[in-house]
């Protein structure tokens, strides 16, 4: 019942009340009947008018980039669906909203819950084509994506959106010339720039030109992108600004392996300066020499410290005359 107790249902209720009050003011009847008219209008028409209007609200939210609100409404409609058929139709709406926002993984999960019978040819082609589209956007199982899209095209060969989906598969396969030709064909069949999503075909043509090495035409197509509230407007702006937002799985794995390799390598040993290392006197016992050697092995000065450290001044050596004088005093 969530779809009848949300902001969209409240808007419908307000419109019905205003309409009922307007009618009551126009008719010449008793006061209690005037009061009853708006209430009766609301009670009778609120349920069907809410059901009819919420699809319009969904389209409005998607067209204006309000994907979060559109998804909330689509989920509320699905949860309150009275039967299996209407629930499947609502699941398709949820998938459409998720595709518009770029959440192809969850859209794919919702599409796979929809089971179309042989009699439901149109539904089957839409589900198959959009499933192939999601697979292509994810770069996953492109042969299966191509098979599904071609099956949908076999039933609706003049559907420009399915031609766009096939162009996406060719783009992911690196077949840029074919992708460009298919995009031109889809625009001829379906010129509406909002389909399949606002700015998507311009962005795809930009990727085609990029693949062909024509960066000037790529940038020209990217500048046709819509407001950044929309998914492909945001992607186009990021590409124009040189911002890379996606990392391929192979690059992510390579980065992880290099990081692990760097962590596995032991840090390089830092040598002490020669003046500091040679701390044991030449005549010192072997035990003292081994202790000094062990200290050299354990201690490690940073390179900057090693360069700036100055050797300690050696103590002045005793002269031969001083030694002789001390000997005479000891003898006396």
Q: Name the helix and strand elements from N-terminus to C-terminus, one letter apiece.
A: HHHHHHHHHHHHHHHHH
Could you describe the largest sheet, including whether it forms a barrel? none
| Radius of gyration computed on alpha carbons | 39 Å
Mean pLDDT: 76
Total strands: 0
How many DSSP H or I helices?
17
Question: Which regions contain 5 or more consecutive residues with pLDDT less than 50?
Answer: 243-257, 259-264, 266-332
The helix-and-strand class reads mainly alpha
Assembly of the depicted chains: single chain
Instruction: Choose one word for the global shape.
Output: elongated
% residues in beta strands: under 5%
State the separation between the terminal residues, measured CA to CA. 118 Å
Percent of residues in helical segments? over 70%
Report on the structure:
The structure is a single chain. The chain has a domain at 1-96. The longest helix is centred in the first third of the chain and has 33 residues, at 31-63. Helix content is 70%, strand content 0%. With 332 residues, the chain is mostly helical. The protein is built from 17 helices and no strands. It is elongated.
Write the layout of secondary structure elements.
Layout: H1 7-26, H2 31-63, H3 67-79, H4 84-101, H5 104-111, H6 121-138, H7 142-155, H8 160-172, H9 176-189, H10 200-212, H11 215-222, H12 231-240, H13 249-264, H14 274-277, H15 286-298, H16 303-308, H17 320-331
Quick summary:
Helix content is 70%, strand content 0%.
